[in-house]
Amino acid sequence: MRPLNELQLDALGEIFNIGVGRAASSLSQIVNDEVLLTAPAVSLVHRDQATQILLGAELDQFSTVSQTFSGPFDAQAMLVFPESNALEIVRLMVGPHMSIEELSEFEQEAMCEIGNIILNACMSSLADIFHISFDSTLPLHRFGNTENLPILDGSDEQMVLLLQVDMVISQQRIQGHILFLLSVASMSSLLACLDRYLNEQGLA
Question: How far is CA 62 from CA 11, 29, 59, 85, 129, in A?
């Protein structure tokens, strides 16, 4: 798989930025406070490289939400937060008066809702720009650590679109990652859609 050129990376960054903007608006309504999601930094790496990047971010315990999207190309989408940050997000969503034990009871439901909003917003932005559609599975929340991070189980040939996003809620900065695991065939199909879009815009 050839690396993405600067034009392709910029275009994907702009498309996903539309998605995270929509997600921020939806999340703001849920927490009744302004939620800022930074423009995502996009990179395309092999699966094992993505694993090393996440492990290098000094994340020990993870809270992940994943969904599988199928359409002109298929992707396993995953939202990854450090577990401590995930609990903080839940606290901001449900209010400051709950104990850690009470927050933990809401964590799975709240993280599924957050993941569903962010992942669907990103994939919807691709669908809108490329004039395509996807079917998706329900969000699945899991805890993990460096030994059982879900992407460790994928194929060596899978490519990963890795988006690093900072979320700011009530002055609290929370760093997370959005990953899209694609087979080589799906990555080629995505790039075909992207190149067609760039040609239509007169950019390539």
Answer: 29, 26, 7, 9, 32
| Total-model pTM | 0.88
**Backbone phi, then psi, for 76, in 5-degree steps?**
-95, 110
Residue 177 CA neighbour count, 13 Å, CB half: 24
In the numeric block, which tokens belong to residue 33?
């406070």
Q: Per-residue pLDDT tens for 113-163?
A: 989 999 999 999 999 999 999 999 999 998 877 667 666 676 777 888 989
Task: Judge whether 135 and 165 are in contact, CB under 8 Å.
Answer: no
Q: What are phi and psi of 123, to 5 degrees?
A: -70, -35
DSSP state letter for 1: -
Beta carbons of 202 and 139 less than 8 angstroms apart:
no
Under a CB-based contact definition with an 8 Å cutoff, are residues 124 and 16 in contact? no
Q: What are phi and psi of 52, to 5 degrees?
A: -65, -35
Q: Retrieve residue 179's tokens.
A: 């990953």
pLDDT digits (tens, 9 = 90+) for 166-178: 888 777 788 788 9
For residue 75 the two structure tokens come to 């992707």
Instruction: Pull the structure tokens for residue 120.
Output: 């669907």
